[in-house]
Design a protein that fits this description.
single chain; 96 residues; alpha+beta; 6-stranded mixed β-sheet; disordered C terminus
């Protein structure tokens, strides 16, 4: 079983306002986009700018439980990590 680290964020503006987004800090995506998943767009990428300026971390399990269940149903074994882990992974990846 491969465990996937995930940070749950909620968009506070734009067309996805209110939606919960699962961000995978250690899964590669393209260019400066970060691998993500949500109910609406499913797998996609999000820019670092969007994550930093348009989203806030969701830490209450009941707020992200539906998305966590969906990730599990499609084959992920998610482990919730904090947003600080996401920023650490971005800095390490950018140095390579």
């Amino acid at each position: 079983m491969i465990i996937t680290d995930v940070v749950f964020l909620r968009a506070h503006s734009g067309r996805h306002s209110g939606n919960v987004l699962a961000v995978f800090p250690f899964l590669p995506h393209v260019d400066w986009l970060v691998a993500c998943y949500d109910h609406v767009d499913q797998h996609h990428g999000a820019s670092l700018w969007y994550i930093d300026s348009e989203c806030y971390e969701v830490t209450i399990r009941t707020e992200y439980a539906d998305l966590m269940d969906e990730l599990t149903r499609i084959g992920y074994h998610p482990r919730v990590v904090r947003k600080e882990v996401f920023y650490t992974s971005v800095r390490v990846t950018a140095r390579r």
